[in-house]
UniProtKB/TrEMBL annotation:
<protein>
    <submittedName>
        <fullName>BMP family ABC transporter substrate-binding protein</fullName>
    </submittedName>
</protein>
<feature type="domain" description="ABC transporter substrate-binding protein PnrA-like">
    <location>
        <begin position="55"/>
        <end position="331"/>
    </location>
</feature>
<feature type="signal peptide">
    <location>
        <begin position="1"/>
        <end position="21"/>
    </location>
</feature>
<dbReference type="InterPro" id="IPR052910">
    <property type="entry name" value="ABC-Purine-Binding"/>
</dbReference>
<dbReference type="Pfam" id="PF02608">
    <property type="entry name" value="Bmp"/>
</dbReference>
<keyword id="KW-0732">Signal</keyword>
<dbReference type="InterPro" id="IPR006311">
    <property type="entry name" value="TAT_signal"/>
</dbReference>
<dbReference type="InterPro" id="IPR003760">
    <property type="entry name" value="PnrA-like"/>
</dbReference>
């Protein structure tokens, strides 16, 4: 997502969705591949009725734009549409707030006949649980959540792997040994990414430290830019963000500092500042989920959490400014994540207070990672949720 203007989406003619869209400032668009022309049926054999396409809807927390979190989800939606053609019809509503209005939008999606609904942000969890309980014939998929039901399951991307890889590059590129992160909401997902970024930097530069500014929103370009400038004023010369716009990278560009793209390739927004982009590829999971619906094999289960190994995360578009030894260190990490020979969260790892959170040789399991509510050593400042 970016600060640039975007084209308005065409609204559907259905009054219920139009009312919802007017309330939350969002738009809906349906897309289906055109049906292939078929040969005339033989006079003696009546044509079989063509099955109705599966209707799939996506709720987006921000605008699609041309970069960032929602952009990455929508690119995957388009890939799914291309993969399954006229067997499916996909639609989306953007700018759906993480509030009561989300329930209204999701209920409307069900009312429009969608049989598979994706909610693409953590803050939709309780609303999706309510709608799922009232819609047993519809399947629901919730991104980054942890609560499930018979017809609702969760999925996520190991974004901390992308953050760690960015940290490796940042640790090599910093001159001040001060890194900066513009953070969104203080939940384990975001805290985990801040920590992983720091651990990656420290793996190549023991003197690296990280400062954090929280904006308490996923998408707010002005606030993101202000937070980035604040970090630069505090001495940070390499910035990362866990927010959705390109404002942080653009601020780094103006200040002559370095930064990273997040969730999608943002290199065009700060050509001189951009060191690489930690991108998410949701397409493999979306194809899996839609394929299971078409086959009738969809079922709930444990959270699906994919990363580098499954092709869901990567650090791409590396700058020519990145030195050879940094690229070598990155490739070593990436290779280890792919074949399972490297674990980011393996002790000894100490918390901000210097006390061990993982002992030497101890490797964190997913339960540990999902409950992270602390900063690792090297992250400065107080965690907002800490008491």
């Amino acid at each position: 997502m970016t600060i640039s203007k975007r084209s308005l989406l065409r609204l559907t003619g259905m009054a219920s969705l139009a009312a919802t869209a007017a309330l939350v400032g969002c738009g809906k668009k349906e897309e289906a591949a055109p049906a292939a022309a078929s040969a005339p049926a033989a006079a003696s054999a009546p044509a079989a009725a063509k099955p109705e396409p599966l209707k799939v809807a996506f709720a987006y927390v921000g605008p699609v734009g041309d970069a960032g979190w929602t952009f990455a989800h929508d690119r995957a939606r388009l890939e799914v549409q291309k993969e399954f053609g006229d067997r499916i019809v996909t639609s989306f509503v953007e700018n759906v707030p993480e509030a009561a209005d989300a329930e209204r939008v999701i209920r409307d999606m069900v009312g429009q006949g969608n049989k598979l609904v994706f909610g693409t942000t953590f803050g939709y969890m309780e609303q999706m649980l309510k709608v799922a309980a009232d819609s047993p014939d519809v399947k629901f998929e919730h991104a980054t959540g942890y609560k499930s039901a018979e017809n609702l399951r969760t999925y996520d991307s190991r974004t901390y792997e992308g953050a760690y890889m960015a940290g490796v590059i940042a640790g090599k590129m910093t001159k001040s040994n001060t890194l900066g992160v513009v953070a969104s909401i203080p939940i384990p997902e975001v805290i985990r990414n801040i920590n992983a970024f720091t651990l990656g930097a420290q793996s190549v530069n023991a003197a690296a430290k990280t400062k954090v500014v929280w904006v308490n929103k996923w998408f707010d370009p002005p606030k993101e830019g202000e937070a980035a400038q604040s970090l630069i004023n505090q001495g940070a010369d390499v910035l990362m963000q866990n927010t959705d716009s390109s404002a942080v990278l653009q601020t780094a560009e103006k200040a002559g500092k370095y930064g990273f793209g997040w969730d999608s390739d943002m290199s065009k927004f700060g050509p001189s500042a951009h060191l690489g982009s930690a991108v998410i590829n949701w397409a493999p999971y979306y194809k899996k989920a839609v394929g299971e619906m078409l086959e009738g094999s969809w079922k709930t289960g444990p959270n699906t959490w994919w990363g580098v190994k499954e092709g869901a995360i990567d650090l791409v578009a590396l700058s020519d400014k990145v030195p050879a030894d940094a690229k070598e260190a990155l490739e070593k990490v990436k290779s280890g994540l792919k074949d399972g020979s490297f674990a980011i969260w393996k002790g000894p790892i100490a918390g901000q207070d210097g006390k061990p959170v993982l002992k030497d040789g101890e490797t964190a399991d997913d339960d540990f990672l999902h409950k992270i509510n602390f900063y690792v050593k090297g992250v400065e400042g107080k965690l907002p949720s800490a008491k």
